[in-house]
Amino acid sequence: MSQSTTATTVEFQVAEETAPAAAAGGEAQGTTEGTEASGGEHHGVFPPLDTKTYPSQLFWLVIFFAALYGLMSKVILPRLSAILTKRMATINGDLARANALKNETEAAVKAYEKALADARANANDIARTTREAVTKDVDAESHKLDAALAKKVSDAEAKIAASKAKALDAVEDIAADSAAEIVAALGGGKVTKAAVAKAIKG
Length: 202
Prior knowledge:
Layout: H1 2-42, H2 54-185, H3 193-201
Helix pairs in contact: 2-3
């Protein structure tokens, strides 16, 4: 009796263990079949175009746009604005510096042109003054040279006249001596030099 009781208990336990497994298998099979049936019904509809998902799509669209707007307005746009402001300030500073340099260059060019014009005017004045001074010096030196040459010519003429008179006196003396010797040689007696000179002059 004990063996039959034990066998009955074992069969009952096996039946209990098998029943839940079979039930679970049936449920799983039913779920699979339901899923296949559902998939078969919605197989031709594109999920974003399914009207049943519009509320969730709109919800997440609003969430993403709000997050994007917050990111743009709080992070990206302020940084871009700061960068653009800094760049504009840099450009304006460069333009102001360029205008200042341009004005300085124009002022320097005008100052150079004025200095050049003044230098030319001064050079012309200096050249004219120098030319007048040199002309005066040349005229003075010319007058001095003319006076010196005139004096030298006068002295030379006086020396030439004196030499000429001296030469003439010597010629007269030589002629008187020669005439006295000629007269003595011709037998005319002795004639004095004074008499011969008087005869030559007379």
